[in-house]
Request: fold
Amino acid sequence: MSSWKRTEVRRGREYLVQPVSATSAQKEYVCPGCGGTVLPGTAHVVVWRADGVLGDEADLASRRHWHNHCWSIA
Reply:
C-alpha cells in the first residue's frame, strides 16, 4: 500500500480506506462498485470495515479494491 489509511463513514458504517498509488498497484482486481476491472498501474483504494463486528481478521479478509470514483460515489 502506498499512502496513509483514513477512516470514512458510509451508510452508517465505519470503513478504513487505504489509497494505493499507480506505481504500487501490481495486481488486477474486480471493483465491487462497478464490477469492472481495476487494472495494474491504476491508482485506487482498498476498503474494509473498521467496526470490528466480525473481528479484525474477518474485517481484513473482506478488504476490497475499488476504483477511486466508484468509492467516492458509494
Notes: The chain is about 15% helix and 35% strand. The first strand starts at residue 6 and ends at 10. Residues 6-72 form one domain. The radius of gyration is 12 Å.
